[in-house]
Amino acid sequence: xxxxxxxxxxxxxxxVADHLDDDDVRLVxxxxxxxxYDTGHIPGAVKVDWHTELQDPxxxxxxxxxxxxxxCETKGIGPDTTVVFYGDKxxxxxxYAFWVFRLYGHESLRVMDGGRxxxxxxxxxxxxDAPDLPAVSYPVPEAPDLSIRAFRGEVLAHxxxxxxxxxxxxxxxxxxxxxxxxxxxxESSMRGGHIPGARNVPWSNAVNDDDGTFKPRKELExxxxxxxxxxxNDPTIAYCRIGERSSHTWFVLTYLLxxxxxxxxxxxxxEWGNLVGMPIEKGKAxxxxxxx
Amino acid sequence: xxxxxxxxAGFQMVGRDGRLELxxxxxxxxxxxxxxxxxxxxxxxNMVHECQSPVxxxxxxxxxxxxxxxxxxxxxxxxRAFVSILHEAFDGATPDAVATATDYPLRDLGxxxxxxxxxxxxxxxxxxxxxxxxxxxSHTPIAADSADSA
Lengths: 292, 150
Fold this sequence. Notes:
- The complex is a heterodimer of chains A (292) and B (150).
- Chain A has 292 residues and is α/β, with parallel strands linked by helices.
- Chain A has helices at residues 13-18, 65-74, 92-103, 115-121, 152-160, 171-175, 217-226, 245-256, 268-272, and strands at residues 10-11, 25-29, 46-47, 82-86, 109-112, 165-167, 199-200, 236-239, 262-265.
- Chain A contains 9 helices and 9 strands.
- In chain A, α3 crosses α8.
């Protein structure tokens, strides 16, 4: 862990086990499966649901500043609380929640490496007891930090300047053979393919299959930098279908590899692939210098 | 056994947290897979591939009665709960009851908003799989080519 660019954002299951009773630490479970937390969670952890709690119920957008502050208060999170995210599916939604908290400027954020799967595999305690939450007050953040969020106009300008982009969907989605994630036939787009010039690194390539932990830095560098030519000092945009898988890659590039200007395009393919007149490329990515 | 409509009415009577609690109860109620079917599941047959979770679903029809034989791991409680609801509603029903059942199960259960588009698709696939399999095994045409557009 210590070889990562910002190792302080990652904690292991031992660290979590040792800090379960800390008043200034709040564990947050964020899952794909809306019921999983309720079947048993790490003692003291609260649940944050990406769909019902992090997204605006009407408009396609995240909750606003006031709703974010209110959410934190109901979860016992104060502005100085260290929030440790973990979840199912290799921390996919944990990273998404992390990104939303970063968007609203919460300072002290961590991800538990390996997520729920590793905690459970180690036979560590899970409980259905509701956590005892302190009454806290959370000041409404001034404005979201848009240095980590890209909108479509900006993505188009970036594409036209040949700016680096990473498309973290499956190769089939990238090549334009399918317009949806396997298993999600209706969350679809009018057109298939990718934003011209994007590289394709499926998000889950960044984790070890067996225990869900992040791959070592050297392997991640090989994956994103040597093989795909992405650079830590270049403004880079990550996208997927609705911005969830790409928040995982945003985390990897920013904190594990030390890229300093990565934005998540949360409109992603369900926006781009439905807009009239946007440039689209189909098929495999063009060869990079590493391929030649 | 309760009809799907009765089950849905129970879900409609409660708020969001209540629906999650009901789901959790259903998730606990799914009976274990009969031993005779373990081998099929191990062999990867009758899996609902559209679903992200490993859902085993094998609807059968015996003498005009539908049997819902299913297994979903406990670490996929939402899919497990939904399959358990289908078991409760349709195991022991007539093929006709399955054929004429709602085309919008997730909306009727009040789950469309709770789950969002991403999480309802796999469940819709489970439901369609059940309807088609029952129709096929009883030669009852299904009422409509249904799709839950939640």
